[in-house]
Amino acid sequence: MKLFKDFKIVLLLCLTLGLAPFFPEPHIWGKLKWLWGGAEGMQPIDWFDLLLHGSPFILLIWLIILNIVKNNGA
C-alpha cells in the first residue's frame, strides 16, 4: 500500500500511535522496559499493546532498510 511507503505518514504514526500516551512516559518505552526486565506478569493484552505501539517503528525501520537497498542497488 502506497500510504505506508510515505515517510511523512510513517513518522506521524510513530509520533502519535507509537508514543501515545505521552505522560508520564511514552507507552512503548514502559512496555520495552518491562520486556527488558524479564516480562514478569505480562498478559496477552500487554503483548498486543506492545505490538500495537511498536508497529509504526517496525514499519519505519522497514522503510529505511528498503530505501537503503534501493539506493545501493541503483
Automatic annotation (TrEMBL):
Keywords: Membrane, Transmembrane, Transmembrane helix. It comes from the Bacteria. The chain crosses the membrane at residues 48-69. This is RND transporter.
